[in-house]
Task: structure prediction
Amino acid sequence: MSLEPDKAFMSAADLTADLPPEEETQFVASAGASAAVAGQWTLMLWKFRRQKVAMASLFIVLLLYLVAILAEFLAPYGVDMTRPQYTYAPPQGISLFVTGADGGWQFLPHASGYKIVVDQEAMRRTFEVDPDKIIPIGLFVTGETYKLWGLFESNLHFIGPTNPADTVYFLGSDRIGRDVLSRLIYGTRISMSIGLVGVVISLALGVFLGGISGYYGGALDTAIQRLVEVVSAMPTIPLWMGLAAAIPLAWPPALVYFTVTAIVSLLGWTSLAREVRGRFFALREEDFVTAARLDGSSEMRLIFRHMLPSITSHLLAMVTLAVPAMIIAETSLSFLGIGLKPPVVSWGVLLQDAQNLRAIANAPWLLFWPALAVMVSVLSFNFLGDGLRDAADPYDN
Amino acid sequence: MTTDLPTTAPTVLEVRSLSVEFALRGGTFTAARDVGFKLQAGRTLCLVGESGSGKSVTARAMMQLIDAPGRIARGNIMLGGAGAPVDIATLNPRGEAIRAIRGRRIGMIFQEPMSSLSPVHTIGAQIVEVLRLHLKMDAKQARARTIELLRQVEIPDPERNIDRYTFEFSGGMRQRAMIAMALACNPQVLIADEPTTALDVTTQAEVLDLISRMQRELGMAMLLITHDMGVVAEVADDVAVMYRGKIVEAGPVDEVFHNARHPYTRRLLSSVLKLERTSELKQAPAAAAAEPILSVRDLGKVYQPRKSLLSRTPKVAVKAVDGVSFDLMAGESLGIVGESGSGKTTLGRLILRIVEPTDGAVTYRPQSGAPIDVRGLDKQGLRNLHQQVRLIFQDPFASLNPRMTVRQIIADPLVVNRIASGAALEARVSELLGMVGLDPAVMERYPHAFSGGQRQRIGIARALALNPRILIADEATSALDVSIRSQMLDLLLELQQRLGLSFLFISHDIGVVRYFCDRVAVMRRGKIVEIGAAETICTAPEHPYTKALISAVPHPDPRHKRMRTRTHLDA
Result:
């Protein structure tokens, strides 16, 4: 029997060119060189970048925080600017051109004004957008004076009417003629930030208790796990209501909420602790951890130098997924009246204005915009968290 | 590549210029390129190659089992036999036609029977299902046939074992059940993908015997995929050598082994044959008067069963290591050989007290000063011992922290023991890298940039960093391909001579131990059954277990098949 070897394989050049040197100790500075010196964060970034939805979500999240930081500058008006004569004024459209007297087009960014219509049946004045009335608007206009971050006084606004005496409601106005857009922008600051403290407290507790539970195991592990079970059995909302009632009335509402969030987060660490425990359990048995122990590493070094870096990327993903829960909590509790209360402005507080039927019937924008803000932010955080979780372990393949 | 066989055996399956491609981010990766071979009734073709050579991908393509993003790019897989020939390459991977072929006309045996058999169904239920699906048998017929099949594959007491679950079987029994399942429908072709790699050497010999006997009896054509040249020599009629996705050499087994033409085949064979004898690098063993550097006396580890309120039957204590005694001389390499579960890995860990021993004594004699009783050491004493006695791990992927650079990994023991810092540290890391044959310029790289062999070298450099006197190598070469394996052993031999190291070399691989060690201890069920000079143990063993073990090792020469004449161990 003769298996005819393929001539192509047997040509002399091929034979030598195809065969690598005996042992692969040669290193070629080739395309793989940058990957060779890439640490875990670089690898994670590469993997994350391939996920388009997560990248878009990251962009939206960053944008929301930019809005929160620059709220005073971005909002056309202050948060308490009231004009009772414009009750439930609908959103005004923005146009860039006006028709001149000669019939030609002229560039002039403007919003349309209002005309008052009297509803004979209900004996009520309502506003309608009147395209004939022109209110010129512009970027970087002067308006109300404010203090950015309570420090720098300024009257420059990103967008607004060129004449400070004019009123524009890009997203409509509420019951007492406050600008919904401005309040939404100020609400972003509170809603996106107030629960972060809670997340940080949960993170610290979860990593600490989960870490020692997973690392030491045994009786300590059993004790902590039973504690986790008891704590996760506690009902959150009644506790929240009780705590809100127990806090002195004289405290400002934001501080009350802050305190309550902090206390409730003392119960919110349980799922994080379980996950961290599981990871430590698995890591403890890894060969590289045994190797580090045999190298003479102390327990502290073992945990902080070898084990924690292996889960930091997972922690980041877990935290990102915890933030939307806190946004939803703020919104729903404030909506129910046991979270933040006016005069603090948050998305949940804004939604309180949309609790009655008349408001929804006559001014649906009061419901629509804050609800949209909540949905966009929560979805973005969830997609971002999913993307981070997928990218979190760059060594799995 | 086509084959001209003088034999008249009919061709059952023919693969013609098959290419399998994987669409990856950076372009297309061709896992198998222009692969061609014929399978003939009653003959065995061995597809042999090292990891990543494309042999498993080829086998999976023959069943249309390639997962996305892989696909069959070109070529034909013609399945002949009754009726018109079918080209498997053109069938829909999820279609009716291929399902009628899988399990019915082509049977397949995988490497890991535990993951290819369902854990929630009994062995019998799984075979019965195959029979009912493909042969439309009724429940009673199928059960009778299943019992018959289990008897054929030598599963004892088939009437009772048919109703047991996978996890109640040992590895060898599971593989037998898997074979029974693959043979259930009398397939024309049997594909066995590394069927014995996960098995111990004695079990491997039995399973290979069984497979080739069944194949002859049923007149099947068989494709056996393996990386082990010994297995090839024992069972193959024809051989095809794969390298980087191509078949570089093909022919009858004797031709390939004794008249190899392609340099890759020659290199592969020479690295295999090298491990058939003691290394030439080995010098005469140290003078007999040498003091033992490490003494182990009656060392034992008993795992007490956990007390349970719910279990009715009292559990028995497991003796993982049972009264083990030996001396390791200075400058000597002592091999610890045994099959899985023999306690050899635990023994290594007991000496380092990664696992606490329950009985016995370990004494280490440092260069100066009194002998140290390892079991009596406190935390600091143990840390000092761990500088002198170092461990090399089996898995080069799991034993290096992927988040640290090579420099950080090798420097870690020096940093934590405050031995060097700054420029001295850097110089020492460079020196260590040079010592294990790696370019010091690579120290800024992360482990993922290295192949298995290179990573193992990094692991060795880390072990050497503290100037140890004893290295415990726990299956240090098992995860490596055969050509890399002998180079790794040569490196260790060279380091041993240069640095005056003593080795405790734990392995299941007789060849590796014979190549590397001066003396060998054979372990079975936690006990050392025989200890002696490596050459004696490997050529003229005393103990019946050692005899059975040595004779079961496949011999990489088709003219001297060893397994056929092996010694069986009764009891």
User: Anything to note?
Assistant: Confidence is low (pLDDT under 50) at residues 1-6 of chain B. DSSP finds 20 helices and 21 strands in chain B. The longest strand of chain B covers residues 11-24.
